[in-house]
Design the sequence.
């Protein structure tokens, strides 16, 4: 099998290498990729939307169908992970359980047959089987870092018209802060801040904001996702309406991507049980 | 000298083709499922590199409009923004599909107790 | 300019081969993270700053966390 794969790859690679001389030279301004459509985008992006970052304009305005369905694909991936892995069982496996007695700080081990404390008990808190004492340096550093990372992600979202950044990047950074909380503390702390239900709801609301913006345009008598018709609602002219609408749909993308990243992490790191994390 | 200029002028294609077939070879020949997924990841990034190198132009700047040139815009001055957009969305979808692939891996491990393809086949055949 | 590209490209190819040959899946996940980061560097050199930003957050950040979570839930052992 290995030899066959090697022969196949070398053969197909050889064909590609022989035909590589039809490809344009690297950095050629006359290459076909930059000859047909992109001059139109470069020349008209600022005039149409008043946003200097052409990538954001093409992403959320000229090719917004593309971006909308990409957000839907991300949502579908989150749903797929949920349906594949999530198990609603109590998760009470055999073996010992570990509890922390909060007033004294002692760790208690209860064997398989032993009587467990009540679930709503204030004095005992269940802890992971692989529990290790958390390093105070890591916890404190992450606690200090997370608010700034979240503010930075909002900056990336809001400044996407003028600098690199936008909905996808902001969403991933925002999701990464919650994953960082789950890694530095534990999964339960993170789920208390943002439950699975919230994550599912946010991802659906995010895609719905994007699709709903397009639907409003359609109901008002314009093409789907043609933002110019929204000008009276956004209290601006047609050009600024497109600029503001880019921000609105990018907020939707941010919510969807952020929630789906967190959702996949919750299911993957606990194998669907959501009791003991990484 | 001409041959050297030819090789250096298209170095990105050689790199992309190498990474492409490295990923493909790993996907076919490796038996461990996580290694297969790493091969898939290399496959995806090679295609991203190919598209981005198609958007490059010599003596051009980033696709963010400069303050002084808002009046008359020369398309030769700016990089092609279209492949950037396509690949930006492709990366995020790649990580979403990576999550699904790894979820399936965890599921397979829970059922068969191994990640090696040949051992999984043996378990299936013995039933 | 072009020499920097070629140096980074060589490192990328070494990282890709390393990620596929190393015998420990946790190490493979970390080498994949390094590979992603070098790809991000190359994209930034090529002027695709938005894509480089996405690759840095997604490829080197979140996908590594996913790999590590999977390896943590399954096994580090591999035959190849």
Sequence:
């Amino acid at each position: 099998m290995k030899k066959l794969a090697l022969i196949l790859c070398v053969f197909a690679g050889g064909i590609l290498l022989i035909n590589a001389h039809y490809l344009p030279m690297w950095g050629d301004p006359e290459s076909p990729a930059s000859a047909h459509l992109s001059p139109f985008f470069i020349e008209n992006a600022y005039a149409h939307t008043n946003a200097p970052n052409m990538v954001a304009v093409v992403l959320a305005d000229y090719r917004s169908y593309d971006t909308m369905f990409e957000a839907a694909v991300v949502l579908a991936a989150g749903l797929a992970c949920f349906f594949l892995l999530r198990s609603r069982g109590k998760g009470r496996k055999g073996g010992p359980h570990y509890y922390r007695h909060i007033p004294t700080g002692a760790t208690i081990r209860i064997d398989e047959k032993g009587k467990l404390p009540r679930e709503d008990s204030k004095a005992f808190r269940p802890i992971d089987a692989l529990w290790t004492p958390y390093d105070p340096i890591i916890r404190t550093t992450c606690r200090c870092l997370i608010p700034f990372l979240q503010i930075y992600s909002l900056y990336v979202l809001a400044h996407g018209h003028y600098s690199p950044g936008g909905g996808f990047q902001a969403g991933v950074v925002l999701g990464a802060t919650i994953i960082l909380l789950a890694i530095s503390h534990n999964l339960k702390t993170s789920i208390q801040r943002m439950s699975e239900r919230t994550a599912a709801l946010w991802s659906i609301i995010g895609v719905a904001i994007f699709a709903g913006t397009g639907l409003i345009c359609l109901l008002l008598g314009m093409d789907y996702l043609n933002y110019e018709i929204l000008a009276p609602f956004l209290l601006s002219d047609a050009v600024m309406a497109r600029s503001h609408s880019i921000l609105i749909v990018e907020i939707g993308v941010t919510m969807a991507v952020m929630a789906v990243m967190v959702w996949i992490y919750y299911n993957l790191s606990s194998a669907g049980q959501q009791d003991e994390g990484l | 000298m001409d041959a050297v200029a030819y090789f250096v002028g298209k170095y990105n294609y050689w790199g992309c083709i190498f990474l492409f077939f490295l990923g493909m070879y790993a996907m076919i020949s490796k038996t461990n499922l996580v290694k297969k997924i790493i091969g898939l990841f290399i496959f995806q990034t090679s295609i991203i590199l190919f598209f981005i190198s198609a958007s490059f132009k010599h003596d051009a700047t980033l696709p963010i409009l400069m303050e002084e040139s808002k009046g008359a815009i020369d398309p030769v001055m700016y990089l092609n923004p279209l492949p950037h957009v396509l690949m930006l969305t492709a990366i995020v979808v790649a990580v979403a599909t990576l999550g699904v692939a790894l979820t399936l891996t965890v599921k397979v491990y829970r059922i068969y107790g191994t990640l090696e393809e040949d051992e999984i086949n043996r378990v299936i055949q013995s039933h | 300019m072009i020499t920097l590209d070629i140096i980074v490209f060589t490192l990328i190819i070494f990282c890709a081969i390393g990620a596929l040959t190393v015998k420990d899946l946790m190490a493979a996940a970390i080498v994949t993270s390094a590979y992603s980061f070098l790809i991000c560097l190359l994209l930034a050199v090529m002027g695709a700053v938005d894509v480089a930003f996405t690759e840095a957050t997604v490829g080197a950040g979140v996908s590594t966390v996913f790999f590590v979570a999977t390896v943590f839930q399954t096994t580090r052992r591999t035959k190849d």
Remarks:
- Residues 1-57+79-126 of chain B form a domain with the Helix Hairpins fold (CATH 1.10.287.3510).
